[in-house]
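Record type: monomer structure entry
Structure origin: computed from sequence
Chain ID: A
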Amino acid sequence: MLRTLLAAALLIVAAAARAEPDPGLAYGPELDGFPQPFPVARHAVTSQRQPVQMGYLDVPPERPNGRTAVLLHGKNFCAATWEGTIRALTGAGYRVVAPDQIGFCTSTKPAAYQFSFRQLAQNTHDLLAHLGIERPVVIGHSTGGMLAAHYALLYPRETGRLVMVNPIGLEDWSRKGLPPIPIEQWYARELKTTAASIRAYEQATYYAGQWEERYEPWVQMLAGLFRGPGREAVAWNSALLYDMIVTQPVVDRFPDIAVPTLLLIGQKDVTAIGKDLAPPEVRGRLGHYPELGRAAAAAIPGARLVEFPDLGHAPQMQDPAAFHRALLDGIAAP
């Protein structure tokens, strides 16, 4: 009996070893081959003594209202994942520019780059200057929300309005007890990324435990980067970016934000970068978005807070209709 069970177990292991660990389409290091919802333009610059390029979407409105919205994506997102919001904003008269930051999606994955929020904000500012855009509505989600806060702090006179959608960076994880995490550890973890791991994480945090098939293309978008020929470069850039996020907090600068600010917060969000690597006693103190959103609204002068009681980290994707109503209402005043 024991031999039979052992033989069966060995057959299962052998079958698993032969199986494709993460079947699906593979994309190039700049998301080559992924079907984009809008044409991708390229902005080539020299940054940190090397040529790099930013992919971006520049989508004209149906009936222009003379205003521009800039959409800043999150860590596990791309410009393309703003598709529904782009259509809502252009339908309301806004020109929409959605860049992929250096290290992400359709943009360059440098082997060596000093990633900082100031650098990414400067790259975005250079792109907007190139396009002749002044005083846009700057809308950032997740890591993009943290970047949007830095952008408003660096360029207050050139920011018409700031919108942060479930931004990370509402707390300083290191101050709350997150231990130092070597970049090599981030890199090793990122190399293990699969569609299954992405899907499980997104279901738990982005969608408050729910799942719908309409979320799957965005899972496959990310997974395709990690299946592709540039997976090591993608994983290394991802590791460098995680280090940037954890080591460059912005929450203490919130009182210095001097532009009209709207916070859109899904209340079932539990996101905290590195929480899975924190000791259990620390893990439980991180990612309480109802408290964090209200604290941020109190800290930012004149900020307006809109809460979505049943939504998670990505309200713009989980309930687009409710989210876009709140967004368009919140940015309607010039």
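Annotation 1: The first helix runs from residue 2 to 18.
Annotation 2: Strands lie at 41-47, 50-59, 68-72, 95-99, 137-141, 161-165, 261-266, 304-308.
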